[in-house]
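>> received
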Amino acid sequence: MRIAILADVHGNLPALEAVLRDVEAEGFDLVVSAGDVVSGPMPAACLERLAALGDRIRWVMGNADREALDGTDAWVHERLTPEQLAIVERFAPTVDLGEVLVCHGTPASDEECVTLLTPPERLERLLAGEEHPVVVGGHVHHQFVQRAGRTQWVNAGSVGMPYEGAEGAFWVAILDDGTPDHRRSAYDVGAALEVIAATGYPEDLTDVLRGKVTPQEAAAAFEPAS
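>> returned
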């Protein structure tokens, strides 16, 4: 089974559409949303686009999804219908794909940060007792691979707000043999910024979408001090 794992869409519909075009072109069997889809400028449209995949979509709860659900993120909460909020309520803490476990932050927390700077000993503590050979997370918006014992940690990157030092929508594919393969889908960022501005979204995403934030900068900001 070929699986596409999409993390941190953050309401960026043009980026999501670019990824789903690639997903459809390659014939992936399953799509997993690894959290933080319903936040950002176009949350309802992104949720509906993924929900339209029907039985081909699985959902992981991200911290921003929780904030939208409970109204902490009022801007997003007001843009979701009761029916859409009911979809978000069904998001799960993790999705078990057999050899692969998908989470948002870590298997134990949707807010815990693992970055490319995370020391191996800390990652081993976070994954103590984990039996899946591959764990895929998101949350910190940059792609990388780490290893803790027998477990390979893979960050999917971010579809909608990447910190990769480059433009594009970033995600990860799980190939037929279980191998993770980092991907990047190109799209018209200038046009996307115009669409985002028209929504009235209060944050300026220009620097992020133009690739002005590097993985190293993101990791330094996210990595806990101890």
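>> The chain has a mean pLDDT of 96.
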